[in-house]
Amino acid sequence: xxxxxxxxxxxxxxxxxxxxxxxxxxxxxxxxxxxxxxxxxxxxxxxxxxxxxxxxxxxxxxxxxxxxxxxxxxxxxxxxxxxxxxxxxxxxxxxxxxxxxxxxxxxxxxxxxxxxxxxxxxxxxxxxxxxxxxxxxxxxxxxxxxxxxxxxxxxxxxxxxxxxxxxxxxxxxxxxxxxxxxxxxxxxxxx
Length: 191
Hints:
The protein is α+β, with helices and mostly antiparallel strands. It has helices spanning 2-28, 111-114; strands at 46-48, 53-64, 67-76, 83-90, 93-95, 101-103, 108-110, 117-121, 128-135, 140-149, 163-164, 167-168. Helix content is 16%, strand content 36%.
C-alpha cells in the first residue's frame, strides 16, 4: 500500500510539472501589444515616428539659460518624397534664421553633426519644451525637445548665435553652465 501511494504522489508531481512546462510558454505569450512591437527609443529627447517624416532624439543643447541649438535626427520614409525642414517654433522658443534642411526620400539629416538650428527663449537645462517643426510639403510635427547642458556627450554640438530678421540678437547675460558633477559633502560618520 505504501509503494502505490508513493507512486501516485510521484505521478501527480510529474503531471503537475508537465502541465507547468507546457502552460508557461503559452501563458507568457498571451495577448497583444508586445513591447517588441512598440517603438523603443532609449534616449533623452523627444521623438515622433508616425507618418512619413520621423523626428528622433530632439534636444536643445544649451551653454546657458535661454540660448542654445536645436538638434535632432530627421528621417523620411523611402515611399515618401524628399522634403525640407523650413521652420521651427514653440512656446517660449524662438528659432534664428537657418537655411532649409533637405531630407531625401529614404534618407536622414543628423542635426547633431550637420549643424543645428540656433534658438533663444525661456528655457533652462532640464526643461522639456514643445516645439513644432514645419516642412515645405505643408506638414508640421510637434515634439518635445529636452534642454540639455552643452557638456560631456553634447560638448561637440556647436551653439551658434541666433539671428532674426538679419539682426544679431543681443547676447545672453546668463551665466554659462558648469559641466562638473556635484560632489557629496563629507558625512559626519566618516570621522
